[in-house]
Amino acid sequence: MDTDSSSEEPTSMETNSEMEDTCSTTSQRSETGDGICPSHSSGDEAATQEANIVYMMFMASQLSGARVRLPEHNIGLRGDQYIQAVLNGNPRTCRTMFRMEVQAFRYVCDLLRDSLIMDRTERVSVEESLGIFCLLVGHAQGQRIVGDRFQHSSETINRHVKTVMRALHQLGRTVIRRTEMDGVHPYITENPHNYPWFEKCLGSMDGTMINARAPSRLSNAYRNHHGQIAQNVLCLCDFNMKFQYVYTGWEGTAHDARVFLDALSRRRNQFPWPPEGYYYLVDSAFPCIEKFMPPYPRERYHRSDRYSGRQFRGYKDYFNFRHSSLRNIIERTFALLKNRFQILSAMPRYRPTRQGMLVTACCTLHNLIKTVTPNDEFIQAALELQFSQEKMTGADNDAGDTSEVVDMSHESASAMIAQRDGIAIPMWADRFGE
User: In the listed set 151, 175, 199, which residue is the last one of a domain according to the structure?
Assistant: First the structure.
């Protein structure tokens, strides 16, 4: 029994050692094959690092793509600083940018402020508001460009342009009116060809085409005979080149006579009728009625029709020549207005009522400038301007409209014809005298 037991013990011990070796071998295989021990720890760190890198890249892309608000108007001088620099700097800068002299600019600001029509806002002064308006209408600039110059938003620019436009339109009720003068105007008395023949003349009246923007459904009504979208504006000016009456709102297809009759027939238009015995000079597009003197029909009229001062065919031809020379003051005034305010040749997309207010505001500003500086460089350029024959209205084109109006007021037409003959015949007889 002892022998058997002793023989069994080594067997069991050998078996245990073999089991330990097998277990160790299996564990080593499992460590190397399954990768559960040290390799598991290093893979976890790599995955974490990779996730961190991906997250950082995502956050960086989100931050770079986010809209960071930056100041938009931070270039150059602010609006109030720019105005003071212009008004206190070289005077030519004010003429170039605001289309008027420094004293005229200050005069308009004081007038708007003293008349309580305008007052400064919390951030913008009256001077800056007027400067915004003058830069826009003088150079036909867009509101974004003007806003960049004055360092304001487009909404602020639009609001102040509208405020100044309404203020000047309201001021025009007192500024645009007939100038009372004792005696005959020096423009007539200083020219022996005009005095004493036109001593009862108070001014000249005509219509002009101002660029307009109209809705598509009304474009044909605003398209004039030149094919342009425009509005027909009736104006009356004196011999100081100042507007006495401005009537806006008519389409470009409307005839001058139709606009003229509408202006006279409506009481609310407040047309400045001349006193008894006095008259305004008009062209052949207007009716021949009392207090409005047109040229003789079916005769040469414009100055460009003459090739020599001695080639007149009678008193009617000679009268039309003198009539054209004197009535030309309204054409020079139109040229001065459009040259100073270039927005009238490139009207923005405003409503039709706002476009009419803008024209009236420009005419008001023109009168104020002419009051303070009657001989600035824009006026000197207009005085030297010569008009071609294409810019005038022919005498034979409107005979039908004129005859219809004459039939309606035969007595006034006869009175004007008699007054015109009373000037033309003696003037023809005295054409070679002093």
Answer: 175
Number of domains observed in the structure of the chain = 2
**Are the beta carbons of 324 and 299 closer than 8 angstroms?**
no
Cβ proximity of 340 and 99 under 8 Å: yes
Hey, which residues does 211 pair with through a beta bridge? 230
Considering the domain architecture, whether residues 244 and 365 belong to the same structural domain is answered as yes
CA–CA gap between residue 421 and residue 295 (Å, rounded): 11
224 and 318 share one domain: yes
Q: What is the 3-state secondary structure (H, E, C) of 155-194?
A: HHHHHHHHHHHHHHHHHHHHHCCCCCCCCCCHHHHCCCCC
- Identify whether residues 410 and 344 lie together within a single domain: yes
Binned average pLDDT, 10 residues per bin, the chain of 434 residues = 44 44 46 44 72 75 59 73 93 93 93 79 88 95 90 91 93 88 88 91 95 88 89 95 94 92 86 90 92 90 58 87 92 94 92 92 95 73 45 34 41 89 91 66
| pLDDT at residue 16 in the model | 45
Q: Do 154 and 225 fall into the same domain?
A: no
> Taking a C-beta distance cutoff of 8 angstroms, is the pair 193, 325 a contact?
yes
Residues linked to residue 230 through DSSP beta bridges, in sequence order: 211
Helix axes 143-150 and 126-139, enclosed angle (nearest 10): 140
- The reported pLDDT for the residue numbered 259 is 92
On whether both 270 and 193 belong to a single domain, the answer is: yes
Nearest Cα residue to 108 out of 168, 160, 67: 168
Among 156, 175, 194, where does a domain finish? Answer: 175
- Containing domain of residue 141, as a range? 79-175
In angstroms, the CA 85 to CA 62 distance is 44
Distance CA 265, CA 409 (A): 14
Q: What are phi and psi of 246, to 5 degrees?
A: -135, 125
Q: Is there a single domain that holds both residue 257 and residue 317?
A: yes
Contact between residue 330 and residue 237 where contact means Cβ atoms under 8 Å apart: yes
